[in-house]
Amino acid sequence: MKVHYINMLLFALPLNILANNKNKPHTTHHTQKIPTTRSLCECELYAPANYDNDLEMKRVMDNFNKQTQQRFHEYEERMKTTRQKCKERCDKEIQKIILKDKLEKELIDKFVTLDTDIQSDAIPTCVCEKSVADKVEKGCLRCGGVLGGGVAPAVGLLGAMGIYGWKIGALATATKYATAKGHALGKIYGELVGKEEVIGLLRTFFVDKLFPKIFETFDTTSRYTEVTTLTKSILREYDTIRNSMDATVARNCSRFKDMLGNYVQNVGTHGTDEPTAIPKMLREILEIATKKAKAEAADASSKIAADLTAQETNVINTICRSWETTIIAAVVAIVIIILIMVIIYLILRHRRKKKMKKKLQYIKLLEE
Question: pLDDT at residue 12 above 80?
């Protein structure tokens, strides 16, 4: 094989590769030689001439034939046992069917003349063998008796008694709470009414115009029961302004005197002096305001207590109604469960009687 590199190296240089190589290749094998063995696939299977003189092939074929025959023999033995079992089972089923048909025919002939008036005492019962239906029947009867005789009445009675007792206690507590709260709120309302009454009476006596500072201080900071403490302040201020030359002040002083009863304008006579008349006026104002405050406080207390009692009573009645509904629902559920158990008991009892009746008929037939 010659290759020219003229296009790559721009000069002609012929190379002889693998051409007339005088050096013979020498390869060393490192793997061991695997001995060849003959098998059936190495030759023609359907050429008996290849097997006649080959002892190894004959031995292989004999071994194969022996194993095949042994396996067929084992298979035949197993199939014989299986066939025998199937045959016996089929024979038994056939005998049962034949016997059943025979008994049915005999029973149909005998039932016409058989007396079917069977009492429950004549039904034989087995104590040691109890079916699931018998156990369920007795369990339903027992559970129905327990639920109907104890649980449902107890839930209804105890639940109603509990709700009634709780309702009485809750109403008493609510009434007590409403009375206390009504008294407290009535007292506050009485204070406000008394304060308004005192302020109105002081304005009637022109105190807000003659003594504005004293009036404003009392209106913003003092309680109505402290009106009698204004005596000294009013007397001190009155001594200051009684001889004032201001026409408005003089007119208000004249009105104030008329209200006090210190000076009667139409008659022109003097009555009680100011140090006696002003404390008397304040005491009368306090007495009037106190009476009105107490009356308004009592009225407000009763109204508030009645409103709160009505509200709490409605809440308590709503809670009691919800609890009563829950108890009624529980009792109804228990009654429904009892009815279901009774129905199951009656059905199972009817089936048991029917079954035992049929058994007794079989027994009579066998005795005949």
Answer: no
**Start-end of H helices in the chain:** 6-9, 55-111, 132-146, 152-204, 207-210, 212-221, 231-241, 247-260, 274-367
- Alpha helical stretches, state H, 205-273: 207-210, 212-221, 231-241, 247-260
Which two structure tokens, joined as six digits, stand for 225? 């029961």
pLDDT at residue 2 above 50?
no
Residue 282, C-beta contacts closer than 8 angstroms, at least 6 positions apart: 227, 228, 230, 231, 234
Residue 349 amino acid letter: R
Contact (CB, 8 A) for 191 and 224? yes
Give the number of other CB atoms < 10 A from CB of residue 94: 10
Contact 211, 263 (CB under 8 A): no
CA-based nearest residue to 101, from 351, 109, 206, 145: 109
Contacts of 205 (CB under 8 A, 6+ apart): 256, 259, 260, 281, 285
Query: Residue 16 gets which letter from DSSP?
Result: E
Query: How far apart are alpha carbons 158 and 192 in whole angstroms?
Result: 50
Structure tokens at 64: 């194969």
pLDDT confidence of residue 261: 62
Among 172-181, 265-274, 280-289, 318-327, name the one with the lowest average pLDDT.
265-274
- 146-167 pLDDT, tens digit per residue, is 555 555 555 555 666 666 677 7
- pTM for this predicted structure: 0.43
CB 234 within 8 A of CB 278: yes
**Banded model confidence at residue 270, pLDDT cuts 50, 70, 90:** low
Type of residue numbered 83:
R
| d(C-alpha 305, C-alpha 189), whole Å | 14
Distance CA 225, CA 287 (A): 9
Q: How many CB atoms lie within 10 A of CB 234?
A: 22
Model confidence at 264, pLDDT cuts 50, 70, 90, reads very low
